[in-house]
């Protein structure tokens, strides 16, 4: 099963990446830009595998660039505050 097929696994995977980036000294602005680039790539190239990803993809598709940055920042915050970390 792909990490993209299960929302909790996906959040955990992203959370691990956020923690590693923070521990590696990545600045918050850079982390936000990387999250935006990943979100844009996923929206353009990967079919959502669950309902939560479908909602994110739908929101991304109607958002302007500024709003997409907000979505990316919220995903970073969501995964970095996940109780499993």
Report on the structure:
The chain is an all-alpha fold. The protein has a domain at 27-85. Helices cover 74% and strands 0% of the residues. The protein has helices at 7-23, 28-45, 51-62, 65-80. Helix 1 (7-23) packs across helix 4. The chain is globular, with a radius of gyration of 12 Å. The mean pLDDT is 86.
Descriptive keywords:
mainly alpha; single chain; globular; YmfJ/YflH_sf; DUF3243; DUF3243 domain-containing protein
How would you describe the oligomerization state of the chains in this entry? Answer: single chain
- What value does the Rg take, in angstroms? 12 Å
Tell me the helix content.
over 70%
**Total number of helices:** 4
Overall SS class: mainly alpha
Secondary structure tally: strands: 0
Give the termini distance in whole angstroms: 22 Å
> Shape from CA axes?
globular
| Percent strand | under 5%
* Sequence stretches where pLDDT stays below 50 over 5 or more residues: none
Overall pLDDT level: 86
Largest sheet: number of strands, sense, barrel closure: none
Order of helices and strands: HHHH
Structure, briefly:
The protein is built from 4 helices and no strands.
Give me the secondary-structure topology.
Elements: H1 7-23, H2 28-45, H3 51-62, H4 65-80
Helix pairs in contact: 1-4, 2-4
């Amino acid at each position: 099963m792909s990490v993209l097929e299960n929302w909790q696994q996906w959040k955990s995977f992203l959370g691990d990446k956020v923690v590693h980036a923070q521990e590696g000294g990545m600045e918050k602005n850079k982390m936000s830009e990387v999250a935006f680039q990943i979100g844009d790539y996923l929206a353009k190239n990967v079919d959502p595998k669950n309902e939560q990803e479908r909602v994110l993809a739908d929101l991304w598709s109607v958002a302007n660039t500024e709003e997409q940055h907000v979505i990316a920042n919220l995903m970073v915050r969501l995964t970095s505050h996940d109780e499993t970390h």
